[in-house]
Design a protein that fits this description.
methionine biosynthesis, IF-M1Pi, nucleus, binds 5-S-methyl-1-O-phosphono-5-thio-D-ribulose, IF-2B-related, amino-acid biosynthesis, 10 helices
């Protein structure tokens, strides 16, 4: 795992720790993930979140579980034969896959490990060699993320600068808006849409980043705010309801967002509120850019109507989590955490989808580590074959 300051996952040998994102930004606490069950629980409860980060954790948890067994003085019975290994590992992969339904990266990671397992069994290798291949593949899923994030960030930023240059604007004046959190905390490092923004900043082309609070989990106000502050990127937070006002009163060069799943036609599931921002961006003629790794593109899903959308527990939309203000600290100097209810108790109904789908029609460009896809003139869908 590359060291980039802020990080969602850190590993030392077989030890995996994740930063508890429920406590950020007021308390930075790492939690050890020493079992498959803990990895599943951390993903489900959103102690770790962000499509690439949850895939990395699932892959690393499997790698660590197998490494420990390979190194154990007495090998477990399931390492005695390829069939026994398969019977043990496949249910773990199937179980991890069920932790969250929308981000396809999680199923891409578990499918990749399933393929390694099946190929190993078919090749006639012994159980220990197959387990070693799975360890290597699990680590690779995590390792690959940072370099591909840098690549898609560079490609997306260069494409945007070309578009801006065509409109005759000065590149140094760029202001971008983003939704949710797509930085180092949501990935294995650098980020996707926030990576693009970071790249513009690093190359002196960014004036300011705007980001929505992204309620109800507040990925924007808690996590993106924290990342932008630590990267010293000039930035401004806005409430989700203020996007239209922002576009009316500020010169926004583009909206850049991440994705949890991009369907074959380019329809994109991302944090709820992304669709609202895309409708408003179209109304204001602002380019709307999706930045995501190839593993987020799901060619088997025909369009957005087929993407499973996770519904989060009602209570999560009724609560706000944070630190007591004015800040009170406990004996260890940690800001005291509080969870506050902002609705009456026992509401009759709560609508709480975690994601929405932005139709391809509203998306200007889809950027992966392989390139930038735009729609053909007059088309309402993407041909993604050049970027997967
Ligand atoms: O519910 P979350 O916080 O996991 O949702 C995260 C998002 O919607 C991100 O935009 C997406 O996963 C891309 S992260 C690089």
């Amino acid at each position: 795992m590359a060291s980039l300051g802020l990080t969602s996952i850190r590993t030392t040998g077989t030890k995996i720790e994740i930063v508890n994102q429920l406590l950020l930004p007021h308390s930075v606490q790492f939690v050890e993930i020493d079992s498959i069950e803990k990895a599943h629980d951390a993903i489900k409860r959103m102690i770790i979140r962000g499509a690439p980060a949850i895939a990395s954790l699932a892959a690393l948890a499997v790698a660590s579980h197998l490494s420990l067994a390979l190194d154990a003085p007495a090998a477990p019975e399931w390492l005695s034969s390829p069939a026994a290994l398969q019977d043990h590992v496949q249910p773990l992969l199937d179980y991890l896959y069920t932790a969250r339904p929308t981000a396809v990266n999680l199923s891409a990671a578990t499918r990749r490990l399933t393929s390694t397992l099946q190929a190993g069994v078919a090749s006639g290798k012994d159980a220990r060699s197959i387990a070693q291949s799975l360890v290597a593949e699990g680590k690779a899923i995590d390792d690959e993320d940072v370099s591909r994030n840098r690549e898609m960030s560079r490609r997306g930023a260069e494409w945007l600068l070309e578009q801006v240059a065509k409109k005759g604007k000065l590149p140094a004046e760029l202001q971008l808006m983003t939704v949710c959190n797509t930085g180092s905390l949501a990935t294995s490092g650098y980020g996707t849409a926030l990576g693009l923004i970071t790249h513009l900043h690093e190359t002196g082309k960014l004036k300011r980043a705007f980001y929505t609070q992204s309620t109800p989990y507040h990925q924007g106000s808690r996590l993106t705010a924290f990342e932008l502050q630590s990267l010293k990127i000039p930035s401004t937070m806005l409430c989700d309801s203020m996007v239209g006002s922002l576009f009316q009163h500020h010169d926004i060069a583009a909206v850049a967002v991440g994705a949890d799943r991009v369907a074959r036609n380019g329809d994109t599931a991302n944090k709820v509120g992304t669709y609202n921002a895309a409708v408003l961006a179209a109304r204001h003629g602002i380019p709307f850019i999706v930045v995501a790794p190839v593993s987020t593109v799901d060619l088997e899903t025909e369009d957005g109507s087929k993407i499973p959308i996770e519904q989060r527990p009602a209570l999560e939309a009724c609560l706000v989590r944070g630190a007591l203000y004015p800040f009170a600290t406990d004996e260890g100097g940690v800001k005291q955490q509080a969870t506050v209810m902002v609705t009456p108790d026992n509401l009759d109904g709560v609508y709480n989808p975690s994601f929405d789908v932005t139709p391809a029609e509203l998306i200007t460009a889809i950027v992966t580590e392989k390139g930038v896809a735009v729609k053909a003139d007059g088309a309402t869908r993407f041909d993604l074959s050049s970027v997967v």
